Here is the input.
Amino acid sequence: MKLVTLVSSMILAASMTVSDNVIEEPDDRTSGNLLTVTAEEEARLESLLFHNPDVKPIAIDAIKVMELEEELTFNFNTQDYLPENFNPLKGKHDLDWSKIELIELDEDLTFNFNVKDYLPKHFNPYACVKTKTVCSK
Here is the structure.
């Protein structure tokens, strides 16, 4: 019985000391905008969120993507804005690709720098072709 009384009095004393410690919040009018975050605070928060070394990386396969199917409702009649007898599928299969001539346009590449400045000395792009060896560097 003494033990129960002792424990309950300790809990009562601890709760009283906790309730006496009131944390005063700063006044909005005197401290300015409370939502203002300095660049240092923002950098610290970003490093805590995104650069935490204790967090293991998540595999892309582990992420499950859920696609929500939402029904589109228009507040107007779409047929009012389409031509009469409009058929969006008309002519879909009428194309004869054997009669259509595809033209590939050659584009001239112009560099605003000298490419030789970025290549190794004595670089020959055709060296492997002449010697029939495999270039793997």
